[in-house]
Amino acid sequence: MTNLKIQVPAPVDLEGDLASLPGDGARMAPHWAAPDRIASRPVSPALIHGVKVPPASARLLDAMSDYGD
């Protein structure tokens, strides 16, 4: 059997640095249409019942005790 894994070096940033990002974003912006603005309506406090987190996510967050301290 042939080993098809090829070691490829990390890509090199040929386009520039972080200073070029705003210009890149401005050039890409016309490619995406912004949705029409949707007016949000107030929600009755009676409809807000809290946040439910799946047990696996709760364990993950519990293990991140230093996050946000």
Notes on the protein architecture:
By secondary structure, the protein is mostly helical. The protein is 25% helix and 0% strand. The chain has helices at residues 21-28, 55-63. It is flat and about 55 Å long. 0% of the residues are buried. The mean pLDDT is 76.
What's a concise summary of this model?
The protein is an all-alpha fold. It contains 2 helices and no strands.
Which oligomerization state do the chains in this entry correspond to?
Answer: single chain
Distance between the termini: 51 Å
Q: Helicity, in percent?
A: 10-25%
The helix/strand class is mainly alpha
Write the layout of secondary structure elements.
Elements: H1 21-28, H2 55-63
Task: From the structure above, extract its key features.
69 residues, mainly alpha
